[in-house]
Amino acid sequence: MVKIFTGGAACPVGTHMPNDRRMGESDPVSIAVEVLREGGLVALPTETVYGLAADAENELAIRRIFAVKRRPASHPLIVHIAAAEALSAWARNVPAEARALARAFWPGPLTIVLPKQARVSHAISGGQETVALRMPAHPLARKVLEAFGGGVAAPSANRFGRVSPTSAEHVREDLGEEVDYVLDGGACSVGVESTIVDLSRGDPVVLRPGGLPIEDLERVLGRSVPVRDDTTVRVPGQLASHYAPRAGVVLAEPDAAFSRAEQLRAEGQRVAVIAAPEAHVPQGVSRFDVPGDPAGFARELYRLLREIDARGFEVIVAMLPPEHGLGLAVRDRLRRAAAPKDDSVDGS
Ligand code: TXA
Ligand code: MG
Fold first, then answer.
1. Ligand 1 pocket by Cβ (under 6 Å)
2. Would 164 disulfide with which of 1, 36, 49, 304, CB 3.0-4.6 Å?
3. Is pTM beyond 0.70 here?
4. Angle CA(81)–CA(327)–CA(310) in degrees, nearest 5?
């Protein structure tokens, strides 16, 4: 179902009001493209998470993304493109390894960081000399990008510091009327954000584990690719408490989850356990099953964190998936969700 929201008084930077007349006469993709052309914000489904999309070359629209997300201007945005051929329109000195990765994994859940072209504004790059590029695979995102023709800047469509949205409903919950148009593409098939690989300074480094397994990157590049462990950088997803539900999160390896949950319950806390179906969970504790495979866990993770919050649990005991494939991204997000919520760190 497609709904039109009007941007308005709540938007401090620029407004956009798609008129109702269009609803009857255009298909959802055409409306989304028109809203982007007019400088509006569109919630765009991608296979990873929903993005809050704007014309990458419209300065006012970009500023509005930051205002709506309540995101500090120093945190750069990913530019989404329709085809790998557009790489050199946005990036300079594109190395062979970047082209090889684009050929192998685009469209898909991989973002590549490269030196930026002059057309990438400082608002997008957060004042840095690089740009992050991605070609998403969701059919609606592809149609919008192809029809729009230009680059589309889009962070995840959640308020800064909250869990990313994996359905149109999540976007509406978080951003309400501050987004001009929500393009509903159903539930996201990957469920965690893209893997970000930095190729702007020689050897590849993963800045954020995500929807593309690092093993796949390494196979194509023919060498190992380290994950940068740096909590002070420009990647907000890398700040300690970024992906935070309201409930406290306790991590547990599978063999320790039962006793941890039992102990918290005995202390009088309302406990939810996220576990694979075969796991044993104490009585009096609510269980939320995730598929046993890491990709299935990734697909369900954010939806479950939101649901558990909505149902008022105080603590989540999350059983960690194995450390391979998408398990790495899930463990990363859970670890950040479990980190102390410190406003001075990330403003969430
Ligand atoms: O799957 C995804 O990547 C989703 C969908 C919508 O494409 N987008 C997403 O955007 O997760 P966002 O803004 O929530 O996270 C993008 C991350 C941020 O942590 C940002 O700091 C980092 O990418 N980033 C963007 N440009 C960068 C750059 N030039 N250098 C290093 N990191 C960059
Ligand atoms: Mg985000």
1. 46, 48-49, 51, 75-78, 111, 113, 125, 128, 130-132, 134, 136, 154-156, 193-194, 196, 207, 234-237
2. 49
3. yes
4. 85
